[in-house]
Specification:
Blueprint lengths: L3 H10 L18 H13 L3 E8 L2 E8 L8 E7 L16 E3 L2 E3 L3 H20 L7 E7 L7 H7 L14 H4 L8 E4 L7 E5 L1 E10 L3 E2 L10 H18 L12 E9 L5 E2 L2 E10 L5 H16 L4 E3 L4 E3 L12 H13 L6 E4 L5 H6 L4 E3 L14 E3 H15 L3
Parallel strand pairs: 3-6, 3-7, 7-17, 8-16
Antiparallel strand pairs: 1-2, 2-6, 4-5, 5-18, 9-13, 9-14, 9-15, 10-12, 11-13
């Protein structure tokens, strides 16, 4: 059995569900089981690794495989450990099942398939007698699905430590010794190269009222009524945004209301409603300016209502195209060539979603998004990935580094 298959099965068996900001707990949440597995595997393979604490129970795992020739560049491979939740799945989420060349299970496509390809490629390179023309840093980062905090923690290692630098980063700095030349971020691209994609800004809106008994609603102030006006303002702006830059490769900017919470019972007048919204931004668009437009539109529609906008819990710019970057361009060309050689179309394309790549690029490392699987299967009720494509991705990544 090819090595990527058992690696992927092992990853799926280890739940790493992102709580997505909810107050939930249980054995399926957070990335610790995946981190422990990777550490054990890399130890057995004789690879140098470190855990970088990001938040309680959530560690990045960073591995270094040195080039065989002095002065070679450093290439970052990144794959996130977390998955989206499993509610309403139609398959057993943590029981990897193989049928017709596909593996089913939560995270197979997004993005444990890409992680399995990178781990398999690392192990192939470590065992191979062929020269390595780059040092590989592999990062298994946490909290990509909700906040990019793992990628941001990794990116701060590229700069000189400041007086406020967490002491927990000291060990990681011995492995991450400088800024990589380029980053390859695993996401389900079907072995195409995503060269640009959107960013996003997400925050909570708190709409206040005054609670009272529902028998005397006139004595209170129902928070849901002004929240409804907030919702209509968001809907109106969302429609307007779809008409802007409609011909952009990433699609137009978008606005989405994702959750609403309010009220404790039908016989109480609610004093609070909380909404979570997301504004997706195009490469080059300012997340702060995009958020300010939303706030202004809501204020215009809601008069004297008491509305608080919390600080964003996620903020990332879009990914600009790195094709013209002098340091990254040869690696992008080589990645495309190695993919072509193995039968992939390797189309250079754009995406509407966001990834860790935008964080790395903002921190000075030009990035490209590449991996097995289709975004159409990501986050689905019966998530799956084509196993042959995972194996092909591993071969492409190994060939990218191995000397010709």
């Amino acid at each position: 059995m090819p090595s990527h298959v058992p690696i992927l099965a092992d990853l799926v068996r280890r739940p790493s569900v992102n709580p997505m900001g909810r107050d939930v707990s249980g054995p399926e949440y957070l990335e610790g089981r995946v981190s422990d597995y990777l550490v054990q595997r890399f130890t057995e393979a004789g690879l140098s690794w470190v855990r970088q604490p990001v938040s309680p129970g959530r560690d990045n795992v960073v591995v270094r495989l040195d080039a065989t020739e002095p002065g070679s560049p450093v290439v970052l491979w990144d794959a996130h450990q977390d998955t989206v939740p499993v509610e309403n799945m139609t398959i057993e989420p943590f029981v990897p099942s193989v049928r017709d060349g596909r593996m089913y299970g939560r995270g197979t496509c997004d993005v444990k398939g890409g992680m399995a390809a990178m781990v398999a490629a690392l192990e192939m390179l470590a065992r191979s007698p062929r020269p390595r023309r780059a040092t590989v840093l592999f990062s298994a980062t946490v909290n990509e699905e909700f906040g990019f905090s793992g990628a941001k923690a990794l990116a701060r290692l590229w700069d000189q430590p400041s007086a406020s630098d967490p002491g927990s980063d000291a060990a990681a700095r011995r492995i991450v010794t400088g800024r990589p030349a380029v980053a390859i971020v695993a996401e389900p691209t079907g072995l195409d190269l995503v060269m640009q994609h959107k960013g996003a800004i997400r925050w909570r809106i708190r709409v206040h009222g005054r609670a009272c008994h529902s028998a005397f609603p006139e004595q209170g102030a129902n928070a849901i009524y002004p929240a409804a006006r907030v919702i209509l303002a968001i809907e109106s702006l969302a429609s307007d945004l779809l008409t802007r830059h409609s011909d952009h490769p990433c699609g137009p900017p978008t606005l989405n209301l994702g959750t609403i919470r309010g009220g404790a019972g039908v016989n109480l007048v609610p004093d609070l409603a909380v909404l979570e919204i997301e504004r997706r931004v195009l490469p080059g668009e300012s997340p702060d300016e995009a958020r300010a437009e939303v706030i202004a539109r809501i204020a215009e529609a809601c008069g004297e209502a008491r509305i608080d906008h919390e600080e964003p819990f996620l903020e990332s710019a879009g990914l600009p195209d790195a094709s013209g970057d002098g340091a990254a361009a040869p690696w992008v060309d080589r990645l495309a060539a190695e993919a072509h050689a193995r039968g992939a179309a390797a189309i250079r394309t754009a995406a509407r979603y966001g990834t860790n790549a935008s964080v790395f690029t903002a921190a000075g490392v030009p990035s490209v998004v590449f991996g097995p699987g289709s975004i159409a299967q990501a986050h689905t009720a019966d998530e799956w990935i084509d196993l042959d494509q995972v194996g092909t991705a591993a071969e492409i990544l190994a060939a990218l580094v191995a000397g010709g």
